[in-house]
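User: tokens in, sequence out, please.
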């Protein structure tokens, strides 16, 4: 059969699009490997609007339940599948997964991205036990604690700025001798007396038994190793968008993010939209992802109905 729409991704963006597609009676195939997106592993999310606090597993469960409540015979949910390719097929598209293929008039990509993990001894063992990749989700849990932020780009400095509101000290550790972040945010963060900086450093180990107690880093200039006592490590060393399956049909940035029109979320090829962390949007948050997906659905609906 020919669907009106294929939605790819089961995080906040994908589910928001799915709920709106169901309410607009667009015949939709919803494809996701799993539910919840990056935040599904967060221990405490406090910025999901309308809910004071919940953990990532609960968010994932709620998202799935919300979509299934509206799906009826309009949205066909295909979870546990991952998309291999999206190809142009005449005036439509063919979405091929590891299970089968689906023909559709339009595609919304909402596959998010995967954070680059800290490569250091003890990092895997202490992930979600003091090592976190989402300050917006987990930051308030570390109120009153000394923390470190790993990275030197805008994301690292935005994280540091947020943590300075409730942490007694924030140490930014960067592997280079200069920062990539915009000068204005660097100046603002470094002007805070609670901010400390370590440059030209490689993290070699994260220490602690049941929870993070410190990090060990190597000075790349002298070769000397140093230990820093912290109770939280916020990793901001970039992410990899899950967009390889559309690399041949839409324009992407050098980092693999799908380039979209900020007003409509349209990608470079007519009939394809994208929303959330897989795009080149300036800010990436759960609430923003959901809003961008709704924006895409509104535009997509008009497109399909020729208005």
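Assistant: Sequence out:
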């Amino acid at each position: 059969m020919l669907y009106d729409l294929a939605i790819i991704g089961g995080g906040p963006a994908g589910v928001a699009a799915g709920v709106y597609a169901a309410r607009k009676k667009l015949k939709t195939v919803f494809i996701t490997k799993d539910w919840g997106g990056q935040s599904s592993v967060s221990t405490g999310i406090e910025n999901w609007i309308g809910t004071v606090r919940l953990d990532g597993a609960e968010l994932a469960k709620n998202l799935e339940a919300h979509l299934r409540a509206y799906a009826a015979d309009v949205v066909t949910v295909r979870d546990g599948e991952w998309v291999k390719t999206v190809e142009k097929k005449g005036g439509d598209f063919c979405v091929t997964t590891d299970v089968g293929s689906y023909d559709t008039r339009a595609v919304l990509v909402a596959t998010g991205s995967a954070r680059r993990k800290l490569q250091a001894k003890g990092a895997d063992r202490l992930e979600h036990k003091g090592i976190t990749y989402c300050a917006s989700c987990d930051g308030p849990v570390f109120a009153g604690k000394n923390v470190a932020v790993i990275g030197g780009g805008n994301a690292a400095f935005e994280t540091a700025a947020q943590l300075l509101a409730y942490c007694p000290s924030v140490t930014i550790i960067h592997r280079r001798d200069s920062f990539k972040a915009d000068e204005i945010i660097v100046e603002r963060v470094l002007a805070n007396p609670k901010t400390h900086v370590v440059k030209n450093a490689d993290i070699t180990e994260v220490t602690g038994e049941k929870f993070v107690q410190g990090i060990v880093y190597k000075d790349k200039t002298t070769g000397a190793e140093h230990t820093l006592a912290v109770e939280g490590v916020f990793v901001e060393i970039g992410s990899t968008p899950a967009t390889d399956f559309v690399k041949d049909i839409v324009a992407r940035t050098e980092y693999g993010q799908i380039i979209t029109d900020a007003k409509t979320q349209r990608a470079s090829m007519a009939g394809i939209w994208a929303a959330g962390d897989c795009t080149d949007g300036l800010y990436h948050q759960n609430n923003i992802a959901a809003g961008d997906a709704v924006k895409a659905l509104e535009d997509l609906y008009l497109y399909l109905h020729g208005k």
